[in-house]
Amino acid sequence: MLTVVEGFSKFSKEDKIDWIAKNCTSNADETKRLLKKYWNENPRTQRIHDEFIENTLSNYYLPFAVAPNFKINEKLYAIPMAIEESSVVAAASKAAKFWLNRGGFKTTVLGTEKVGQVHFMFDGNKTALRQFFDEVKPLLFETTSPITQSMTKRGGGIQDIVLIDKTQLLSDYYQLHCTFETVDAMGANFINSCLEQISKTFEAKARLKPNLLEHGENLTIVMSILSNYVPNCIVRAEVSCKVEELNDDELKASLFAEKMIQAVNIAKVEPYRAVTHNKGIMNGIDAVILATGNDFRAVEAGIHAYASKNGVYSSLTHAEIKDGVFKFWMEIPLALGTVGGLTSLHPLVKLALEILQQPTAKELMQIVAVAGLAQNFAALRSLVTTGIQKGHMKMHLLNMLSQMGANEQEKNELVVHFKDKTVNNANVRAALQKLQAK
Ligand code: MEV
User: Fold this and answer.
1) Strand ranges in 112-216 using DSSP code E only, listed in sequence order
2) Pocket mutation for ligand 1, best pick of 81, 276, 386 (most atoms within 8 Å of C-beta)
3) Whose CA is nearest to atom 2 of ligand 1?
4) Which is the most buried residue in 73, 95, 272, 340, by most CB within 10 A?
5) Quick one: pLDDT at residue 378?
């Protein structure tokens, strides 16, 4: 049985591995061998990875791939993706190819505003609080200037600070709602540092303000933190073509266009479907976010909140046919960075950004949105024509064969064998057994 361990984070890496191997696994030698097998052979590279987080034992691999032929605003990109799901990169590449000769993807950044809030409780006079805020506001900007100086030089900084009365929702609850421009940085550390300084100044000055806290009133700063909900940090991605250009091997163009629109409309009104529909979009988005060293949890949280902005969880994509033109588009919030964070530390992140031709954060927003839109187009295209399993299981075939212990030659032969056959567990097992019996 596992016992409490004291001071684990202070153990050496070897001691941590020993402890885990001995206390949590049935074969300690095998565990140690496995963890070390995944170490980078270059100790300096390994140290970089060790230092990303605490208690690192080894590295956890994800495939790093690329989906080529994305035309975005007339410029070609090969998009790097880090993801484990077998069909995602193939689907992205297929959608890129499909739209390459139909005008490509068009994108626009509609806003880049980031948000952070100082949450506080105050049980005194509302008018006195508002008066105090108006007086102290210039000082809130002034006392953060050592933090904002270099961001201001790059064209960013704190855009505004607004006092919001939330006491209707929660008694005594107010906030300083702050908006930021962080240029090419995702800006989490910058925003949080600004917010902590703002809250310090605000609280200190409040204590000195006559008539605000003089009669036993309380003002308590609860917390200061950025918000991952960024509904004004928005990018739009779109594809369009004449309906008759939507020729698909499986369906007549007009029927295909109709079914695509029906599929989107279903996801607009049916949350069970919308969640899976949007999950498909996130397959593309997360893969690029991970490859470029951005925070996929922040992006996921913000996008799903945005998908519920009208009170019901709904499709992120939209589709229409107007004057014989099929249009498919999406607007999503994305707070991304191409400087700071992992971008200059993780060697593969650096490479991903180089493959993307060193994008600005705005360019990366557009590339990521395209990856999401392409992924949704590819998923819906399969769903309304052949069904998803045909392509999905084909891509999964190698995983299945590996699990069944097939060798390289058997894998090669069976990939050819299944080119025109249905892939499922029973069929693959039977074909492998037949081959092995030969
Ligand atoms: C699978 O990872 C994603 C899909 O389920 C998305 C969708 O259904 O739209 C194929």
Assistant:
1) 114-122, 157-165, 173-181
2) 276
3) 280
4) 95
5) 97
| Domain definitions of the chain by residue range | 8-50, 68-111+235-372, 114-227, 392-437
Q: How far is the CA of 276 from the centre of ligand 1 (A)?
A: 6
Identify the segments of the chain with pLDDT beneath 50: none
For ligand 1, atom 9: residue with the closest CA: 277
CB 225 within 8 A of CB 298: no
Instruction: Confirm if 99 and 71 have CB atoms less than 8 A apart.
Output: yes
Spacing, Cα 385 to ligand 1 middle (Å): 14
Catalytic residue positions? 85, 279, 295, 392
- How far away, in angstroms, is 434 Cα from ligand 1 center? 33
* Architecture of the domain defined by 68-111+235-372: Alpha-Beta Complex (3.90)
pLDDT at 247: 83
Tokens read off for 417: 């064998």
Among 390, 334, 432, 373, which residue's Cα sits nearest to residue 109?
Answer: 334
The CATH class of 114-227 is alpha beta
Cα–Cα distance between 89 and 102 in angstroms, integer? Answer: 20
Helix/strand/coil for 150: helix
**What are the Cα distances from residue 168, in Å, to 72, 171, 434?**
46, 7, 71
Give 39 Cα–ligand 1 centroid separation in angstroms: 34
In angstroms, the Cα distances linking 169 to 12, 161, 166, 172, 306 are 49, 21, 6, 9, 21
Identify the residue whose tokens are 């950025």: 226
Contact 160, 179 (CB under 8 A): yes
On whether the pTM is more than 0.85, the answer is: yes
Mutational test site, ligand 1, from 83, 270, 286, 383, max ligand atoms within 8 Å of CB: 383
Residue with CA at minimum distance from ligand 1 atom 3:
280
* C-alpha distance from residue 178 to each of 100, 168, 371 (Å): 41, 20, 30
**pLDDT computed for residue 218 by the predictor:** 96
CA of 321 to the centre of ligand 1 (A): 23
CA–CA gap between residue 437 and residue 24 (Å, rounded): 40
- Is residue 198 within 8 A of residue 176, CB to CB? The reply is yes
